[in-house]
Amino acid sequence: MRADAPSRRPPALAAAAGAAGAASLAVTGCGLIDGDDQTITMVVTENAPFQEPTEIAEELLEEDGWDVQTTYVTDIIQPNYTVDNGEYDVNFFQNLTYLLQFNEDHDLDLEPILFMFEQPSGIYSQEHSSLEELPDGAQVALPVDTANNGRGISLLARAGLIEVDESKSTPELSVDDIEENPRSLEFIEVDQQSVGTVYDDVDAVFGFARLLAEVDVMPDEALIIENEEEALPFAMTIVAQPGFREQEPEKYQALREAYHSDEVRDWYQEYLDGLLTPAFDRDIDQAWEEANSR
Fold this sequence. Notes:
By secondary structure, the chain is α/β, with parallel strands linked by helices. It has a five-stranded mixed β-sheet, sandwiched between helices.
């Protein structure tokens, strides 16, 4: 299966996405678990790097005799609740750090079971060709969610535009931790999926490379971009209830073989000329332990 070209349609805003996702889950999520050990239920974000690899994995799973039931949504809240309450076996929409923060904020104990892909994220500008050109009072858009907010702040600090509380790790940083802001940068917080829609309206945005690619802005246009070490805690994951691998070893093994198959790897290599890097060989247990020890 070849990767489709990126959509030109702007991503949905958080409120609309949340309402649509919640409605979708409410309608289709009930009664999926029927005790059949050959059934795997999944809730996946309705976005090409998640949906199309899932469709490949579904075909492989069904060839091996699994009954796969998948719901696609645009919401980034309800999928965790539906896995936590047992409506679905797994979800696929979030990075490692978002999951950690979500668990803390909502008193959940979900676990990542598979790494899927890494994506370079950085700061982009339609108007300025370097960070040094940002004027005093420049508006910089950052993701509003805590897990990604600090990524843009950390990059600006690395570039020397601001100074931050160095005792805090990147996922812990927020605009409240900025200690020096000599250019009086103004931070505009937006839903992580909508950075492409505000790209033309602000001086700079922090965004995921795949979302900027949807408005024809590619990683080589970034003013500054995360290195591999900075990006790993934000690699995308498949998530389940705690103990899923031990309690459902056949399901886990089947999911791992399908999602980490050569067919899925090939899809990522073709999508946007290999923009997204498969993280199949990364040690998710070690990364999760390190994330929880911060």
